Amino acid sequence: MTTHEKTGDGVIDVDTLRIIGDAIDGNVPGVPPERAWDDRRLHYNLVSPSNRRRLKVIVVGTGLAGAGAAAALGELGYDVESFTYHDAPRRAHSVAAQGGINAARARSVDNDSVSRFVKDTIKGGDFRGREADAFRLGQESVRVIDHMTAIGAPFAREYGGSLATRSFGGVQVSLTYYTRGQTGQQLQVAGAAALLRQVDRGTVALHTRHEMLDLVVADGRAQGVVVRDLVTGAVRAVTAHAVVLATGGYGNIFHKSTLAKSSNATAVWRAHKRGALVSNLCFVQFHPTALPLSGEWQSKTILMSESLRNDGRIWVPVVAGDPRSPGEIPEAERDYYLERRYPTYGNLTPRDVASRAARERIDAGFGVGPLANSVYLDFSDAVARLGRDVVHARYSNLFDMYQSATGDDPFETPMRIAPGAHFAMGGLWSDYDMMTSVPGLFVGGEAGWGYHGANRLGANSLLSACVDGWFTLPYSVPSYLAPLLGTPVLPLDDDAVTDALRTVEERIARLLESTGTRGPDRFHQQLGEILYRCAGVTRTPEGLSRGIEEIRALRAEFWRDVRIMGAGDQLNQELERAGRVADYLEMAELLCLDALDRDESCGAHFRADHVTDDGEARRDDDAWCLVSGWESPTTPPEDGGRFVRHDEPLTFTAVPLQTRSYT
C-alpha cells in the first residue's frame, strides 16, 4: 500500500492524490442567464408524436424527479421503462420532505419575484452554482404549483380559498407552498399516481423491487442498465436509447442521517465508475432541526421540518452546563443566539449558518438535554401570540411526530434539536441540459449537483426535483433522442452488455464468498463516525487527511472481514447493504479529498482555516469560483492511482459576486 506525502503538521499533499485535467463545458447558452432557458428550448431538436414510440428511455428512481420524468415522457409517447428498489413508486424518499416547496409566483404581495428568488438561491448557495440553472429553476417554479395542484396535491389554503404560503430559511419573502408538515408525501403521492396512470396506459413499464447495479456504456454513450431483482436475485440487463438517473442523494454515507435507511448512492457511484464525473461531493448539508442522538446504537436521525423555524425560537442557556429544565430558566438567562448574531434573518438564517451556530454553541458547552448535544426550539412565544389552535393547525403532525419520538409535548416543553447529515448538494456532474459527461446519461433531482451550489435553501429540494422531472428532462432528453431515430436499442448480446453483467456478477460473488466476522452495517457505522469527526459541520486539513487514511484502512478491512449471510439467488437484504456500503467506502475517500482540495470555506463546506474575523466562512473567488468534476482512477488510489479534477468555471452577471451576509 502506498503512503501519502505529508507536511510537518500531518496534512496530506493533495498533489499526491489528484491531478488537474481538462476543463469541462457546462453547455450554457451564450445569452444572458435570464434568457438562457427560453433560448435553449427554442433550439432543441424535436421528435414528432408518431415517432416517439420508437425511442426508448430508462428512468431509474420513482421519487419526484423520476416519477415526473417517466410520467411526462410516457405522456409524450416515448417507450419508457421505470425502475425502483421500492415495492411501490410512492415509497420513494421524496415522501420524507416536510415543510414545503418554493415557487416565485409573487402571490403574497411582499415583493417576491423570479429575480429575487434567483438572488436568494445563488446567495444561499454561496455563489457555487450555475446562474443560468438558478434562473431556470425560478422561471419554471411558476408552473410547478399549478401543475402539482392539477394532479392532486392538496396545498394549504387561506380562508378565502387562495393557496397559502410561509417563509423558509435564507429568504425574507413568503414563497413556500405547503401541505402542513407533509408536503413531500402529498407531492409524491400525486406524482406516483401520474406515473401509474401511464403504466395503466401502457406507455411506461414499471419494475418494482429492482436495484440498478451498473451502467451499460457502448460506443461512448449510455445505452442501458444492469439491475438485480431484489426478490429472486436474478441479474439482467435492459437497454435503451437513453438513461435517466433520479436516485436521490448520498447523505446516508454518514450512516446516521435524516434519510431513510434504504436510501443509497449505488446507482450514482456505479455510473461514475463507468465514466460519469461527480461534482462537489464535499457540499453536504447538515440540517439544523434534526433530533439529537439519544444513544450510541440509534440507527438514524429524525428530521423536523425547517418550517418550524417560522414560529419557533432557538436558544441555549446563557450559562454553560446550566442543569435547570427549560421552564426554570428565565428570559434574561436565555441566549437566542441566531437572533443575536443575525438580527435581519434571525431564526430563518440558511441551514448551513444555523447548523454551524448550533454546533458552535454545543461544542462550547452550552448544549442541553441528557447528553448536552442539542439546543432548544421553543414555541411558547408563538402560542402566546397566536394561540394554541393556530400553532396546532400549522404544525400538528410535526408536533405529534416529535412527541412520538421523544415523549415530550412541544406545547409544554421546548423541542430539542441538533444538526444532522441531510441533503447532498454534490452528485453527478451534468451540463445545462441535465446530461452527464457520458452522452445519453441524464440526471435529475438530488442525484445531480445542479441549482444549489454549496448550500441548499429550504424548500428548493422538492422544487428542483419537480422542475427536473416535469419541465426540464421532457425537453432535453427528446432533443438528444431525435438524431437516434431509426437506430435499434443495443442488443443484449453486445460485448458492453455482457461486460457489465459480468462485472456485477463478479462483485456479488466476491461479497458472498467473504468469510469475515462482521456484518456490513458495522462497517457503515464506523464510516459514519469517521465522516462526522473528520468531514462534518467543520473541517480541518488535518482532520480530512486523517479521514482519508482511516477510510482506506476501513475499506481494506471491509473486504477482509465482511460477512454476508444467505445466498445471492434470493431476497437478501444483507447483500444489498453490503454492496451499498462498499460504494460508500469508495465515495467517502473522494468526498474527503474534495473537501481537502477545496481550499476555502463556502456554504456547507466550512474549513476552520478559512474564517473571517467574525467567525463566518471566507470564500476564495479568485481560485475556487468553479465546479469540481471528479474522475476516479482505474488503478485503486491505495495502489498509487490519482483522481483527476476537471473544472467548470462559474460566472455571475445578474447576481454579482458579493460577500454573503445575513446579519
UniProtKB/TrEMBL annotation:
NCBIfam families: PRK07573.1, sdhA_Bsu. The active site is at residue 351. It comes from the Bacteria. One of its GO terms (cellular component) is plasma membrane. Keywords: Flavoprotein, Oxidoreductase. Gene3D superfamilies: FAD/NAD(P)-binding domain, Fumarate reductase/succinate dehydrogenase flavoprotein-like, C-terminal domain, Succinate dehydrogenase/fumarate reductase flavoprotein, catalytic domain. InterPro entries: FAD-dep_OxRdtase_2_FAD-bd, FAD/NAD-bd_sf, Fum_R/Succ_DH_flav-like_C_sf, Fum_Rdtase/Succ_DH_flav-like_C, SdhA/FrdA/AprA, Succ_DH/Fum_Rdt_flav_su, Succ_DH/fumarate_Rdtase_cat_sf. The keyword Cytoplasm does not apply. SUPFAM superfamilies: FAD/NAD(P)-binding domain, Succinate dehydrogenase/fumarate reductase flavoprotein C-terminal domain, Succinate dehydrogenase/fumarate reductase flavoprotein, catalytic domain. The keyword Kinase does not apply. One of its GO terms (biological process) is anaerobic respiration. This is Fumarate reductase/succinate dehydrogenase flavoprotein subunit. Residues 524-662 form the Fumarate reductase/succinate dehydrogenase flavoprotein-like C-terminal domain. Residues 57-462 form the FAD-dependent oxidoreductase 2 FAD-binding domain. GO terms for molecular function: electron transfer activity; flavin adenine dinucleotide binding; steroid dehydrogenase activity, acting on the CH-CH group of donors; succinate dehydrogenase activity.
